[in-house]
Write a structure and sequence with these properties.
Elements: E1 2-6, H1 8-16, H2 18-32, H3 42-52, H4 62-76, H5 86-104, E2 109-113, H6 118-126
Antiparallel strand pairs: 1-2
Helix pairs in contact: 1-5, 1-6, 2-5, 2-6
Length: 130
Amino acid sequence: MSLAVVNETTVTTFVEDRKAFENCVEECFEMLDADGDRVLSQSELREGFCKIMSLGYGSREEEKIDPLFNTIFNRFDEDRNGSIDPQEFRCLIRELMFAMGRGFGNSPVLVVLEIDSLLMKAVEHEFGRI
């Protein structure tokens, strides 16, 4: 884990750098795709999603987190095949990153981030490391 200062600009600049963002999203997708079939099941998404989104580990109880994943699948599984493909995953992450950026606003916010999280990638992007 690492301590970082982020704001809306940190996140939006990263997401709007299409090449850097898509490369990072692809890395995350591959990390979550445990069976290598190029789609994410609900269980694959659940296993690593909190880490890549820096959502913490405090409430990983199924009854608390299942509604989140049900909502994700209802919203982003466009072809309704019960899995998230790379394009659907990219749309999901893009929307969530912009939402987090809006939540931070323009004031700097001190946060603790997972090293492999997309927010940490946004911080690294801001400092020209990716």
